[in-house]
From TrEMBL:
Organism per entry: Thermocatellispora tengchongensis
Lineage, opening ranks: Bacteria, Bacillati, Actinomycetota, Actinomycetes, Streptosporangiales
First-tier enzyme category under EC: oxidoreductase
Cofactor field: FAD
Annotated protein name in UniProt: Glutaryl-CoA dehydrogenase
Family statement: Belongs to the acyl-CoA dehydrogenase family.
């Protein structure tokens, strides 16, 4: 038999072009140098102390807003961006979240909905990592129902005054700019908020047991005064923030497979080295069954991600398709991590191996950018034409 790549037994890589492989490999090399030697310690400490350095290095490689056009952004394909997300999350979900929030939420929002002045002011600096962004949508009492948000923006002469709170905000403490969504008399609107504005604060959220190598904050807006041109000029209603969430969800479809691949690789290597009853556990039927099922689900998830990426590049992908991708790939990635944990036994809960870190991270990924329930109902609405959200 011809030898196979155990991490790609169906030859999915053969469907990638040379340039796409080069993008993937460059991100993998950077993560191997910049992230992998340190991420377990960051996770254990519950901190990301080198976030500015990491953002700068990612900016040098063109990762920040890489799928956006102009203003210093790389203008790469959806598949290129997906491959980058897979490599970033193979290192850690928190690292992929850093890039996703920067590019697919904050930068995408400014690029898609911002004024020309807002784009010129922020996007070039965000693309290099000089400026870090965050995205304020989720609130303490309103996650899956953002239309009921309590954050308010009211006019005061030609200015806007913002009051409210946002929760679970990646990059909040270190951000230079926040895209904040608020209810107004005209409906929900987006605002570009410099984090130096009086009345703005971002206290760190502590006691997390997931995404620990990531900075998560509240956003507190206490009478934050902004000029009239801080508001996005045209977009009204949930269409604005949901368009951004769809971009972030697409990256998760790929990223989850990176976490799954890392856990599978760890289990495969461990099974070949760990001996019980006089031989490696990889030689036992039950272990091989676990590995075979993990490899199959990993392959299926990668194929789905690649298919959606090709459709996105063709301008054909629809929101319910991305919901299907996130729904499937995060759930399957969790299954792969949990199965990998059983192969490693007690070592599966040690940070000497990446498995438990990926597994706990994915518990957050399962929920953010739309819970399982939200994606099930999104897909159900597309299948039946009936809206079960209300």
């Amino acid at each position: 038999m011809t030898a196979i790549d155990p991490l790609d037994p169906a030859g999915v890589d053969d469907m990638l072009g040379a340039d796409e492989k080069a993008v993937r490999d460059s991100v993998r090399r950077l993560c191997a140098e910049l992230i992998d030697p340190y991420v377990a310690t960051w996770f254990e400490d519950g901190d990301l102390p080198s976030v500015r350095e990491i953002a700068t290095e990612f900016g040098k490689l063109g990762l920040l807003g890489m799928h956006l056009e102009g203003y210093g952004c790389a203008g790469m394909s959806a598949v290129d961006y997906g491959l980058a997300c897979m490599e970033l999350e193979a290192s850690d979900s928190g690292i992929r979240s850093l890039v996703s929030v920067q590019g697919s939420l904050a930068m995408f929002a400014i690029r898609r909905h911002g004024s020309e002045e807002q784009r010129r002011e922020w996007l070039p600096r965000m693309a290099t990592g000089e400026a870090i962004g965050c995205f304020g949508l989720t609130e303490p009492d309103h996650g899956s129902d953002p239309g009921s948000m309590r954050t308010r923006a009211r006019r005061d002469g030609s200015d806007w005054i913002l009051d409210g709170r946002k929760m679970w905000i990646t990059n909040g403490l270190v951000a230079d700019v926040a895209v904040v969504w608020a209810n107004t008399e005209e409906g929900i609107r987006g605002f570009v908020v410099p984090t130096t504005a009086p009345g703005f604060s971002a206290p760190v959220m502590k006691h997390k047991l997931s995404l620990r190598a990531s900075i998560t904050s509240e956003l507190v807006l206490d009478g934050v005064r902004l000029p009239a041109d801080a508001a996005f000029p045209e977009v009204r209603g949930l269409r604005g923030p949901l368009s951004c969430l769809n971009e972030a969800r697409y990256g998760i479809v790929w990223g989850a497979m990176g976490a799954a691949r890392s856990a599978f690789a760890a289990a495969l290597e461990y099974a070949g080295q760990r001996e019980q009853f006089g031989r490696p556990i990889a030689g036992f039927q039950l272990t091989q069954a676990k590995l075979a099922r993990m490899a199959t689900e990993l392959t299926n998830g990668r194929l789905l991600a690649l298919h959606l990426g090709r459709r996105k590049d063709a301008g054909a992908v629809r929101p319910h398709e991305i919901s299907m991708g996130k729904l499937n790939n995060v759930a399957k990635a969790l299954d792969i991590c949990r199965t990998a944990r059983t192969i490693l036994g007690a070592n599966g809960v040690s940070l000497e191996y990446p498995v438990i870190r990926h597994m706990t991270n994915l518990e957050s990924v399962l929920t953010y950018e739309g819970t399982e329930e939200v994606h099930l109902l999104t897909l159900g609405r597309a299948l039946t034409g009936q809206n079960a959200f209300h």
